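Reviewer 2 asked us to include a model.

Predict the structure of this chain.
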Amino acid sequence: MATLRDIKRRIKGVQSTQQITKAMKMVAAARLRKAQEGIVNARPYARKISLMLSHLITDTDLASNPYLSQREVKNVCLVVVTADRGLCGAFNTNIIKEAARYVQQNEDEGNIQIQLYCVGKKGFDYFSKRNFKLLGSKLNIFAHPTTETAVELTNELIQLFFNGTVDKIVLVYNEFKSIIQQKIIFEDFLPIPLSDESKTKNEAHYILEHDQQSIFNFLLPRYIRAQMWRVFLESYASELGARMTAMDNATTNAKELIRSLNIKYNKERQASITKEIIEIVSGANALRSN
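Predicted model (structure tokens):
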């Protein structure tokens, strides 16, 4: 049975944990505001550059451009974007499960080899210790995500696609919806998927300077890098939102546990005092009877 000292020691331990979780929640909230600003700026840019490309694309590009060329898919690179740290609820667990399910489902359905590229330490720690084929990894980048890291990763993936190591590249990441909601997205990265707008002839006419082909070739690599940077921001904001929610729940649970422990402590203390009073009264009665 726990003594009063044990209960008091446990209350102090839970109070210390509560202070830590509360501080982590505040840090995540402060970083989340900045990450949300980044998403607000990145999403319109990515949409607009995609719209511009849909106006510029030609049948010749569809047939010959290396970023758009379709080929028989035998090797797929699945880029799994997770966090570098834990303490963010089911954020990492959910995306790891979905990535593993994707690999299992596609390899069972046909003669397709899935290789993984892990962005984030948690995904790498999981897949590197199991029977999965890894093409590469980018670790410890979400403490301070930068456009340089996104460009570096994009260039590496482009090289894997161009040299024929993989025939298709798919991204899986958490899209930020709100602080309490993140959505797991599977998104084709290379070859660049064509939107409905780019598959139909646009009726608008534009005067272009320089020529249409030059502008298209200039924008295409920037579009891909913008998409990767947007994915970084989506995942980072989702991680912070998940951590903020998890730390808020942990703080609430710690508060409830402290309340329960205080009640238990008071009951034990009252029982101890009652027992001492009974012993004193019994001793006094015994002396009086003698």
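The chain has one domain: 23-245. The CA atoms of residues 250 and 256 lie 10 Å apart. We have added this to the supplementary material.
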